[in-house]
Amino acid sequence: MKNKTIAVWFSCGAASAVAAKLTIEKYGKDNTILIVNNPVDEEHEDNQRFLKDVEQWIGIDIIRAVNTKIQTTSAVDVWNMRKYMSGINGAPCTLLLKKQARYEFELNNKIDYHVLGFTKDEQDRHERFVKFERENVIPVLIDANLSKGNCFNILENAGIELPYIYKLGYPNANCIGCVKSSSPTYWNLVREKHPEVFFQRAEQSRRIKCKLVKHKGVRIYLDELPVNAKGGKIKSYDCGIFCDTK
To answer: pLDDT at position 47, please?
Structure first.
């Protein structure tokens, strides 16, 4: 492969960081590599420290790509604008702050291939992305047989401290209080670690009439969730440029 432009979509998570490094190592000599991030205000503040550390590691500045048709990079603002938070059609924050930002970036930059942080455990997500979004995807982590745990180890061995959000027990480096999760285990973790975010989501979801959490098979409001409620293992709802509603 030569003289192509490859966009790596960096989400401030461990997997996309390693995907960026591998893409540069494998394709950087003969191709143009763009590392692109869609910023969202509700992510943990340490994500920006991680982004800068990754920039130093990969030796390329990370490009900020936003949706210029809206005057915000805040998921909370998007939910207020749309009067919708999450449901069968996904989450509007992903649509406006991630997907449409990507579409706009693609209009201004000819992209031959895309790279995302899908690991070997996420073959199904990669296949759905290829089927419904873009066929021109290079699955660098899957090809390298790397799991998310492998990515953690690679970063730690490189001397890069993982985003602080992982240390708090969250499964990814997405926004705190991700509305795509309906897990009572997840939302009680948010209530424990970030109570101000939990109560903000509870108030906004009541106002918008969106029942975000599922308890004993029934959708309920966050302020109805018992503090000791637990579900299964917290699912990883990676907020990339494809809103995975499964």
So the answer is: 97
The average pLDDT across 9-37 equals 97
Beta bridge partners of 198: none
The C-alpha angle 213, 214, 215, rounded to 5 degrees, equals: 115
Residue found under tokens 């805040």: 74
How far apart CA 130 and CA 103 sit, in angstroms, is 16
Q: What is the DSSP string of 204-216?
A: HHHHHT---EEET
Bridge-based pairing of strands 63-64 and 32-37 is parallel
Q: Decide which of 3.40.50.620, 3.40.50.720, 1.20.120.790, 3.40.50.150 is the CATH code for 5-167.
A: 3.40.50.620
Burial of 20-53, coded b for 16+ CB within 10 Å and e otherwise, reads bbbbbebbbeebebbbbbbbbebbbebbeebbeb
Two structure tokens written together for 155:
């970063």
What DSSP letter does each residue of 10-48 carry, written as one string?
--SSHHHHHHHHHHHHHHTTTSEEEEEE---TTB-THHH
Report pTM.
0.90
> What is the per-residue pLDDT across 192-213, written as a single tens digit (0 to 9) for each?
999 999 999 999 999 999 999 9
State whether residue 160 is helix, strand or coil: coil
